[in-house]
């Protein structure tokens, strides 16, 4: 990840009143850096590789990491987004406890306590998504969007960062669930969104039902 990308996340963590709750999808080269930047806060990592997650926790006991099984394929993105739109008032609504959801893009098998946390910063830097059979980041982006809008307390705003924002799938999924009106910066490979808590009766992710693709510059 470039210095510019890292600085955007570091700035968001610095603005956060400690303790800051930081959720990261993907165990990467920056894992130890994210933990260090969120000093005195809680940093949780989610990864699709259970063996790597266990290895990282064993090698670095201070790291809190969990594995999750993604049931998605990159090639299925259009069908998965269409399924969410059909269920946006029911299983796939923007405000809910995903632990009890049957939405195809909702991750409902994370540790139960993670659904109760009011996340201040969320980074989507996983899972892998570069070939048709890869899980892609659709579920991670959708889950981040719901967690941000479903906060019960704390700061009503959540910073959501999507790395590899230059990838078409990540842009399309972000446009659908994080929403263009919430995009505050798009530079290099990072998309930075700020989402606000929503009313529990909300039935739309975006204020506008028609989206235009985000631009590649800030």
TrEMBL record:
The subcellular location is: Golgi apparatus membrane
Per the UniProt entry, what is one GO biological process?
xylan biosynthetic process
What are the record keywords, sorted? Membrane, Transmembrane, Transmembrane helix
Task: Look up keyword Nucleus and say if it applies.
Answer: no
Instruction: State if Transmembrane helix is listed as a keyword.
Output: yes
Q: Which InterPro entries match?
A: IRX15/GXM/AGM (IPR006514)
Matching Pfam families: IRX15_IRX15L_GXM
Topology in the lipid bilayer:
Single-pass membrane protein
Single GO cellular component term: Golgi membrane
Against PANTHER family, the record matches this protein to: OS11G0490100 PROTEIN
> What is the protein named?
Protein IRX15-LIKE
Organism, by scientific name, is: Sesamum indicum
